[in-house]
Amino acid sequence: MATRKKFGHTWWGNAWIEAMARIDHDTNRLPRGRSYANGGRVQEIQICNGVVKAKVKGRQRKPYQVTIYLQKFTPEQLSKYNRVLPDYDYLTESRRHWP
């Protein structure tokens, strides 16, 4: 039996997975995506400027591309983030790339 991968290694990653599960409560996309990831079917992932792209080998012969667009934080949201959250080391690195 294949080893299952754990998704969401930080509190932020776990929060992301939980949010996705709430959004996808009746379409089966998240369980199918986990199955594809566990089965090695996600061939490449690119993350750049709020866009996540991945090539996925589904049931068809040719892999298909999945694209997820993420909204950027507004200046107000960034200001609140900086006030509310402590300066955790694992967040500091990702914040360097924000405007």
Structure description:
- This protein has one domain.
- The longest helix has 13 residues, at 11-23.
- A three-stranded antiparallel β-sheet has the order 1-2-3, with no helix packed on it.
- The radius of gyration is 16 Å and the shape is globular.
- By secondary structure, the protein is α+β, with helices and mostly antiparallel strands.
- The chain has helices at residues 11-23, 29-38, 75-84, 89-95; strands spanning 42-48, 51-56, 64-69.
Output the keywords.
about 20% strand, about 100 residues, alpha+beta, 4 helices
Percent of residues in helices comes to: 40-55%
Order of helices and strands: HHEEEHH
How do the strands of the widest beta sheet line up side by side?
1-2-3
Biggest β-sheet: count, sense, barrel? 3 strands, antiparallel
**Which spans have pLDDT < 50 for at least 5 consecutive residues?**
none
Number of helices: 4
What's the β-strand tally?
A: 3
What's the N-to-C terminus distance? 45 Å
Q: What radius of gyration results from the CA coordinates?
A: 16 Å
Q: Any idea what the shape is?
A: globular
Secondary-structure-derived class: alpha+beta
Give the number of domains: 1
Strand content: 15-25%
Mean pLDDT: 78
